[in-house]
Amino acid sequence: MALDDIYKEVILDHYKSPRNKRELPGATATCHRNNPLCGDEIQVAVTVDDGVVTAATFQGAGCSISQSSASMMTEAVTGTKVDEALGLASSFRGMMAGEVDPDEDAFGDLIALKGVVKYPIRIKCAVLAWDVLQDALQGDGAAEGTHAH
After folding, report:
1. pTM of the entire predicted model
2. Among 34, 41, 68, 127, which residue's beta carbon has the most beta carbons within 10 A?
3. Nearest 10 degrees: CA dihedral of 67, 70, 71, 77?
4. pLDDT tens, 57-78?
5. Pick from 51, 14, 27, 29: which is nearest to 132 by CA?
């Protein structure tokens, strides 16, 4: 099986069986955004305890790229320190911009989204959840209580 086919399988798996797609009662921070160009909509909720993302979930609707990216993101950042999660978000955006060559160990399943770079109009779909995560983690009161955009 070609690498591109494996990547497509990973994306479809996360789209058909999304991880952590649910509400997060008691979330430390939530943030919601949409991409009006394609209708993708993502809400991210995180629980941060002592500087560590102890839980990350998402809700929303949209294309397979946005939904699978959100699913992979929740898995990738759960259990990481906030600054590590923000660093991964920055690296992910760099990969989608073609500026960062991803480290497969650090990126895991996220590497499957690298092929989206070939389709510039879809890059925003892949990055949306990461932008929402960053807003949630850096927003005013993210460490104190829930806020929404």
Report:
1. 0.89
2. 68
3. 180
4. 999 999 999 999 999 999 999 9
5. 29
